[in-house]
């Protein structure tokens, strides 16, 4: 993410062996995979890795390591990063490992609330909001963007 906006996504299927890993190892597999993909961007930079599994935060301080974990730590030593725990509810960009099945199957075309409809109507009547929406549509601002007709700013705030 940069300035609160996701700039890239990466995913892959776990193989049969990886599917049997414990959650911490699945999280570390995902982290290692992403660091390999984006290595050329991240070497020499300082960055944070946000995770929603508190046990994974302690990976760097474990006393006993399996050979696989030792390889991971050896690879991770190349990077200047910080693992940060962020609870799943607060981590809006959390990976699919921790998401509930029912969230994945939610219908995106659910009826909108009357509050959202009223906000949209208000945006269309406010001259300042109109000008910001025009700038967002033309891609002339990074501070504001439109999502389904609603003007948003940093932190996905309306």
Automatic annotation (TrEMBL):
Pfam families membership: RT_RNaseH
Statement: the UniProt record of this protein carries the keyword Electron transport: no
Record keywords, A-Z: Endonuclease, Hydrolase, Nuclease, Nucleotidyltransferase, RNA-directed DNA polymerase, Transferase
GO-annotated molecular function: endonuclease activity; hydrolase activity; RNA-directed DNA polymerase activity
Residues in Reverse transcriptase RNase H-like domain copies: 4-79
Protein name, per record: Reverse transcriptase RNase H-like domain-containing protein
Organism: Acer saccharum (Sugar maple)
């Amino acid at each position: 993410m940069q300035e609160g906006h996701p700039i890239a996504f990466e995913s892959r299927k776990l193989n049969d062996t990886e599917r049997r890993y414990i959650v911490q190892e699945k999280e570390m597999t995902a982290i290692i995979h992403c660091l390999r993909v984006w290595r050329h961007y991240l070497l020499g930079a300082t960055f944070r890795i946000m995770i929603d599994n508190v046990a994974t935060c302690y990976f760097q301080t474990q006393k006993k390591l399996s050979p696989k974990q030792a390889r991971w730590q050896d690879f991770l030593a190349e990077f200047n990063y910080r693992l940060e725990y962020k609870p799943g509810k607060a981590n809006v960009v959390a990976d699919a490992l921790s998401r509930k099945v029912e969230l994945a199957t939610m219908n995106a075309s659910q009826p909108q609330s009357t509050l959202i409809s009223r906000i949209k109507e208000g945006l269309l009547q406010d001259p300042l909001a109109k000008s910001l929406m025009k700038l967002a549509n033309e891609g002339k601002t990074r501070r504001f963007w439109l999502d389904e007709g609603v003007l948003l700013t940093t932190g996905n705030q309306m």
